[in-house]
Amino acid sequence: MSTGSVDVISPVTTVIIEIMNKFFNSVFIGLGVVFLTLVLLLGYMFIADPFGLKPLIFGTSIEMQTTKTYTMETPTTNTEVSAETATAGFELSNAQKQALISLGIDPAMVPSYVSATQEECFVSVLGEARVGEIRAGAVPNGVEFLRAKACI
To answer: Model-level pTM greater than 0.70?
Structure first.
């Protein structure tokens, strides 16, 4: 007489397996939602480029493909100009030119001279004290470049 062994799963084990199944399904669905959200966000950031980082990452070839026009309107009601901004601009040092090139500006487009209009724009964006330091030879950092990019 042969007795076959029959594996019987207890009801407690079945409940534990169902709970674990629901838990892991929830975890993987949550991870999938987070992943999809990140992909969509990164896709938007790449296409829209809200921070203007494409030229810094990919160089100037992207800058040629996507043309953004910046217009700077000067206020007509303010006729008072300080003595420092009334000058005819200033020359850029070699270190400042190299900094602009390293920040993504095409070497052929790097200005050697900052006009009075550009200087006024820099003063409105960076402040008169910082423009005075840059005029004296200080090199602008990446954040300042991004803030004053419309002035160049």
So the answer is: no
